[in-house]
Write a structure and sequence with these properties.
273 residues, mainly alpha, 12 helices, 77% helix, 0% strand, phosphate transport, MetI-like, Phosphate transport system permease protein PstA, Phosphate_PstA
């Protein structure tokens, strides 16, 4: 076998292996979705959306998750965008920026349960109890590193020539960032925000150590606060088939929400050809 034939053989073999693993991944995803639909759809009813957990529904958990994730996004996304902008623009090449980037990478790969334990020690223990605010802080810490990494990567892809042209016209640095680089990278930045939102919406472990859960509908973030992931975890452990069915319905809802965010991210915000 000559050199060219050997290269083609290796190329075909690697393509076959990659295709096989891709098919296995798709089968696993289809299996999960089929199981969720099979067990979650029969439990979906109007009670799920109109009653609290204490009355056989999930209204309080749905409202609690939406409220905590929204507040976490309000806190985490601006900080992440500003930090990512500093790394890509003002701090490029500095030692401080390298240290911030290194810490952000560690935070990005840290297990969410460690973030929950950290917030438990820093917020829950000093305040004397579980609260919705501690859950918001935990979710904001999960959102921030994703937004920082995405913002830095997207701004780094903006051509240097655009910045130079703006500086040549006499624009100050803040205006170049706001009107040129952010504008050019806005699709990628929004994509990162939506991906971080999808990750935070599905987290369970940090909420068990912070917000904990509440069977009743409440808007008081100063006490134990309900959330959909925590409700699924608690209902799935109850030896009652009706409660377990409600947990499957909650799992279906949260999966549908995360899938919808990912579809919006990859299809609607994709660059137009």
């Amino acid at each position: 076998m000559d050199r060219l034939a050997r290269r083609r053989s290796v190329d075909y073999t690697m393509k076959a292996i990659s295709s096989a693993f891709a098919v296995i991944s798709l089968i696993a995803l289809a299996w999960i979705l089929f199981t969720l639909l099979q067990r979650g759809l029969p439990a979906l009813s109007s009670d799920i959306f109109t009653k609290a957990i204490s009355d056989g529904g999930l209204l309080n958990a749905i409202v609690g998750s939406l409220l905590m994730v929204a507040l976490a996004l309000v806190i985490g996304a601006p900080i992440g965008i500003m930090a990512g902008t500093y790394l890509a623009e003002a701090g490029r090449g500095s030692r401080f920026a390298a240290a911030v980037r290194f810490i952000n990478d560690i935070l990005l790969s840290a297990p969410s349960i460690l973030i929950g334990l950290f917030v438990y020690q820093m917020v829950v223990v000093p305040t004397g109890g579980f609260s919705g605010w501690s859950g918001v802080v935990a979710l904001a810490i999960i959102i921030m590193p994703v937004v920082v990494r995405t913002t830095e990567d997207m701004l780094s892809l903006v051509p240097i020539g655009l910045r130079e042209a703006a500086f040549a016209l006499g624009a100050p640095m803040w205006k170049v960032i706001v009107s040129v680089t952010w504008r050019a990278a806005r699709t990628g930045i929004v994509t990162g925000i939506l991906l971080s939102l999808a990750r935070a919406a599905g987290e369970t472990a940090p909420l068990l150590f912070t917000a904990f859960g509440n069977p009743n509908l409440t808007f008081d973030l100063g006490q134990a606060f309900p959330s959909l992931p925590a409700a699924i975890n608690q209902l799935a452990q109850v030896p009652d088939p009706a409660q377990v069915s409600i947990a499957w319905a909650g799992a279906l809802l949260i999966t549908a929400g995360v899938l919808a965010l990912n579809i919006i991210t990859r299809v609607v915000l994709a660059p137009k050809k």
